[in-house]
Amino acid sequence: MIAIVLRRLGSVLLVMLVVAALSFLIFNFLGDPVNNILGVNATLEEREALRRALGLDQPTWVQFWHFLERAVVGDFGISYRNRQPVMDLILSRMPATVELVLCATVLALAVGVPMGVYCALRPRGVLSRVLQMVSLIGISIPQFLLGMLLILVFSVELRWLSAFGRGEVVEIGWWSTGLLTDSGRKALIMPVLTLAVFQISMIMRLVQGEMQEVLRADFIKFARARGLPDRAVNLRHALRNSLLPVVTVVGLQIGALIAFAIVCEAVFQWPGLGLLILQAIEYADFPVMAAYLALVGFGFAMINLTVDMIYLFIDPRMRRK
Amino acid sequence: MRLHVKPLILAAGLAAFAAAADANTLRFAEGQDINSMDPHAARDDFALSLLCNVYEGLVRWNADLEIEPALAESWEAISDTEWRFHLRKDVTFHNGNPFTADDVIFSYHRAGDAGSPFAGLLEPIAEVVKVDDHTVDFKLKRKYALVLNDFAGWYIMDKEFQEEIGSTTPLDLSSNAGGAMQTMANGTGPFKLVERQPDVKTVLAANADWWDEKKHNLDEIVYTPISNNATRVAALLSGEVDFIRNAPPQDIDRIEATPGMKVMRGPHLRTIFFGMDQQSDSLPGSGVEGNPLKDVRVRKAIAMAMDVEGIKRSIMRGNSSPVATQLAPQMPFYDPALEEPIPFDPEGAKALLAEAGYPDGFTLTLDCPAGSFINDEQICQAAVGMLARIGITVQLSMHPPVQYDTELPAGQYSFYMLGWAGLPTIDPYNVFNATVHTPSGELGAWNPKGYSNARVDELIIQIGEEYDPAKRQEMISEVLKTQRDEVGKIMLHQQFLTWGMTDKVTAIVPGDEYTRFWYYTMN
Amino acid sequence: MTAPALEVRDLGIVFDTRRGPVPAIEGVSFAMARGEVLGIVGESGAGKSLTGNALIGLLQAPGRISAGSIHLDGARIDDLPREAQRRLRGKRIGAIFQDPLTSLDPLMTIGDQLVETIRAHLPMTAAAAKQRALDLLAEVGIADPASRFGQYPHQFSGGMRQRIVIALAIAAEPEVIVADEPTTALDVSVQAQILALLRRLARDHGTAIMLVTHDMGVIAEIADRVAVIYAGRLVEIGPVAEVLHAARHPYTTGLMSLIPSLSRREERLPQIAGAMPRPGQWPGGCSFHPRCPKAGPRCALETPRPVATDAVRVACHLFSGGTAAAPAI
Known about the structure:
The complex is a heterotrimer of chains A (about 325), B (about 525) and C (about 325).
Chain A: H1 2-27, H2 33-38, H3 44-54, H4 60-71, H5 86-121, H6 126-140, H7 143-157, E1 170-172, E2 175-177, H8 182-215, H9 218-225, H10 230-260, H11 262-267, H12 273-283, H13 286-314
Antiparallel strand pairs in A: 1-2
Chain B: H1 2-22, E1 25-30, H2 45-51, E2 59-61, E3 67-69, E4 72-79, E5 82-87, H3 101-112, E6 125-132, E7 135-140, H4 147-151, H5 159-165, H6 177-183, E8 191-197, E9 201-206, E10 220-225, H7 229-237, E11 243-244, H8 252-257, E12 261-276, H9 296-305, H10 308-314, E13 320-322, H11 346-355, E14 363-369, H12 376-389, E15 393-399, H13 401-407, E16 415-420, H14 428-435, H15 454-465, H16 469-485, E17 490-502, E18 505-506, E19 521-522
Parallel strand pairs in B: 1-10, 1-11, 14-15
Antiparallel strand pairs in B: 2-3, 4-5, 5-7, 6-7, 8-9, 9-10, 11-17, 12-16, 12-17, 13-17, 18-19
Chain C: E1 6-17, E2 20-32, E3 37-41, H1 48-55, E4 63-72, E5 75-76, H2 82-88, E6 93-96, H3 100-103, H4 110-121, H5 126-139, H6 145-148, H7 158-169, E7 176-180, H8 188-205, E8 208-212, H9 216-222, E9 225-230, E10 233-239, H10 240-245, H11 250-256, H12 297-301, E11 307-309, E12 312-314
Parallel strand pairs in C: 3-8, 3-9, 6-7, 7-8
Antiparallel strand pairs in C: 1-2, 1-4, 4-5, 9-10, 10-12, 11-12
Helix pairs in contact in C: 4-5, 5-7, 7-8
């Protein structure tokens, strides 16, 4: 088991390295941050001077090497836009996104799994058909559209919820949370729904599909033949065996959402990582982008590792090695 | 015990509510946050358009975009190259520090020393000399006509405070020092910073000790960046914000139709045009020999093909005004004698093209920014169709602004959209030296491979040095007329500002887009 | 006279389709005594497993019982409510399926699966149930039950897993066990051990075992009686020795010739050419007549009823008191 973890950590480093290298290549096509830093009226000399000061006049691979040198000691440089250490910036934005994504995931699991189980058990029922249709809409509706619809209904028409922002947040150490205030909780409602609708639909369909498959398995028939109550057969045996792929997909979804909740964050002006990277791209804020992409690589690798650990926990067959 | 606590909280809550209801809080949303509270961090009109409420220069623009005294109460020219400024004596910074000549000298060095973003702006100044605590002399390197204009965009910071927090240079990307100016500001302006969470919220409060007579009645300004256009409009419509600058054109009708909302309009100083490569000997990909854009008849034919009124009608929804030259009518030294644009005449354009030797047209690539100017993408798409009518095939290439602003000055485009407002100088000189002068050194940076006329270049230099307004007017008109006759640019239009707000707010809408909140009132 | 452990009377099963019900089992009747092993043989699709599923109340839609009745120890069980049927399953009628590799939940220890089954039927404390589970494991021949109790199915071999399946089936001491091809998926060497175990259960506990198989060798080895099903109908039932060595029904005769050890190898079923018809395509009269070497005109017109000849019941016109040559009426 320790060997698995170590091997994984090795590949994590490799992934981060490749991602960082790729991001450096991409930077060359993004434009020049010097324009943004100095403004359009700056003279050529001023531009050149700043370019030299930032090391942007050097070949890409040299810049990449300097980046690596600093990155290994945790120094990702200073953001061109915010003039703040990149790590501080990312850490300060992370709680907003993580809170949003985790709330959405918890909601998605709490709603999606029971719905999926119900639909698997009564595939021909009227409610199942309705749920399946609704989930199809949930999967195909663009986040932007859904978010704007919610804003139009709950902010503009009903004036119940705020169209933007996190509301009041409470600082706990370096973490900030909106869960402890009324306005913070209210602010979460629409962004969480926007993110969760797709996830609910996806989890529901995934659970339904997997569980229908498992329900046809011999051991379920045998469990019924053993005279176990339906509840035990459906939940203890069928659902549990259906959850392995769900764990994988949900894990990757969490990662994808934390990294790329960009649309949702942009719609609701949610001050998280998505907005940060969006602004960094617009500004050609290379240090933020490089650190961010490397960390995303790291995050995904860690999630994969966690998923594997959960696999080990759930599925005894994996423990053999 | 519990019973006793509750009414207390309730009472406190009511009191807070009452106070909030009495106070005039202007909640203001904008598409982006300013990058720093440091007014020297960048020559960035967007940031300065907000920071002008916190910091002040020696002079400032009034509501009619005329120069008026600010931190300097008067000034005089000692010679052609020496200016004396008499500083106001009763001014304090927000932290209580007095404003003196030392702060002016400190701010000159902070903003203008080599490597700082304002070095270009302050380049004509050779030396700043303290005469006494409230008198400063500026010695110029040469005759320079725009000292006051430039000073209106250069803000004074508190020497003592900046040294205290260790931020004496604006562009230190190697350390954390710049970060301090993210959340701190100590100016002399009508509003002071009370709270700032970068990218989330910035709260300004009225400065009770402001030196000037207070015309506004705002107590507080809460500025929230909301990047998504639709969300920002929704926030206005839902009553969560009172004021948004630059309402998206497609939402203007909706805002105006909402009870309690209005849109205030005003002409923008910026004019939009297409620039052209008039220097290269050939135009790769054009399908014809040579560079057709070097021929004035071809340029004129392109101008005649542009249905600018049609663009105003169907794309700008009336919120634009066709222009004949690069100077918007609200700019100083505008010449009404030159306001007749080249008429829309596609048939004439075809004939002119044939005369120039291109009866079958040719192929052009039009480079266009996505999101720099109002409806830039749609205008460029319309241009593709209009040019197709006279036989010119246009391939449209869209770019994100950050890429566009890098590649355009580097001369990578041969036919491109650009807009220029001459900010913060607000003088034709700035427009000319950036976009009309033949590219050389610091001049013509935004006119790569573009229009070039030796006489015009010479005039531009003189315009920068001439103090006599009548002589300046003459020269400026000559530059405008020459460039118009030679079709140096394909002129399109002047944008209109459309600011959405609740009926409670009365704002001014100046052509440079600055939010000068000290003119705003709420009821 | 005591009631048989299990009795099936005139059982009919249909599949509901869009074009109406299609019969899959028709007029099947048999009884099993305590401790008896009844083999059910027939080709794939004949209806053996369907009958087995009907007995344990796990007939799946679109299949359903359309006629007849099932009696357990004299009491009718096929019309009981769903929940009551569930309580019977495992408690009074156990089941063993073909593939031990897939019959056990892979994510649960075998001990938990046993305890779960025991406690579903018997009012026992967790500790008592565990003790019983250990006893059961020992009974089915799992060495060192205590240490294997906490292991997962994948840690056992196929034969071991089938032993565990059997332990699960007998967890609540059912009177009847339906064993559907219990040895088909196993190695030949293991088959014999499992069959011996079943045989011993029938003898020691008086459990009636219905052994569904297509393998006449298995029948020969452990069954007391054998029932032959062809195209949804019981064609012959009787003591193993009688049926194997003196098959009456022409189909049984053909089937017997499939067993190398029991018949002369050179007679390779010339008389059983063709394929068994699927439900919905049964011919009129005797279902077997299109393939039957001895068929007469009557066989196509009239479905033969089972008649008793000695200990054997057979459904064939050759034995229904006349000839296959002419209709009775």
